[in-house]
Amino acid sequence: MTWKLQAITGEFEGQEVSIERDMLIGRHQDADLVLQSAEISRRHAAFLLKDDVLWVQDLKSSNGTFVNDIRIEHDKMLKEGDIVQFASIKFNVLAPAKVKPEIEQTVSEIEIEPITQAVEQPIQQPSEAIATAEIETPVIAEKTVAQQMNEQGMPELAARDNNVQLTRDGMPTGMGVPKPAPIPEGVDLKTQVEQAPVVIPESPSVVDQQLEEKKNTSVGLITIVTLVILAIIVWLFFK
Questions:
Q1: pLDDT of 107
Q2: Residue 26 in this model has a pLDDT that exceeds 80
Q3: Is there a contact between 78 and 54 (Cβ–Cβ < 8 Å)?
Q4: What is the rounded (10 degree) CA torsion for 206, 211, 217, 223?
Q5: Rounded CA gap, 194 and 153, in Å?
Q6: What is the pLDDT of residue 86?
Q7: Where are the domains of the chain?
Q8: pLDDT at 170 exceeding the cut of 50
Q9: Binning pLDDT at 50, 70 and 90, where does residue 118 land?
Q10: Which of 39, 29, 35 is nearest to 11 (CA)?
């Protein structure tokens, strides 16, 4: 993107100056844009390009730098149509031309050929072509005892009573009695754990507390009376 300056007055009147990088303006021969005028300082001003944006900066010139007839003290961003003036020399700012986007081809202009897919149909074989070996014979699984009992059902109570033989005491025969678990070695069942008696401290009753308080009160009164009598005796003795 290239900015341009079109000279309005001065020695470059009618000419255009392209700005593709930072440029120094002044009367010195080392300047990028040399202006031969006594009003122009040796290092008068500078054009700066920052992110494709054009700025102008005054370098403490004697006669100043103006943008749209206003003297600038700091960097000033320029736009299309601004008038930049160095002393009495004026330039018109021309912004870069905008690039027009190319016209994209629409989807409707693209011819899309239809894609046909052949659908394969399964081939049906006649029933006569099926080999007899392909016919699987069902395998009958043997039934468990539990399944047979479930199908037969529970016997009636009378039938169960006839099958069970009882002793004289009325206990069914043929039934095993479970044995107790064995006692581990080194365990004495006769040993008893002796527990020490727990002593519960007796809390004083309310009556005992009241008697103790009365006793303390009586002792206090007797002490006070004794002291008063002693004081009277001593007073009489020394009188």
A1: 44
A2: yes
A3: yes
A4: -150
A5: 59
A6: 93
A7: 2-97
A8: yes
A9: very low
A10: 35
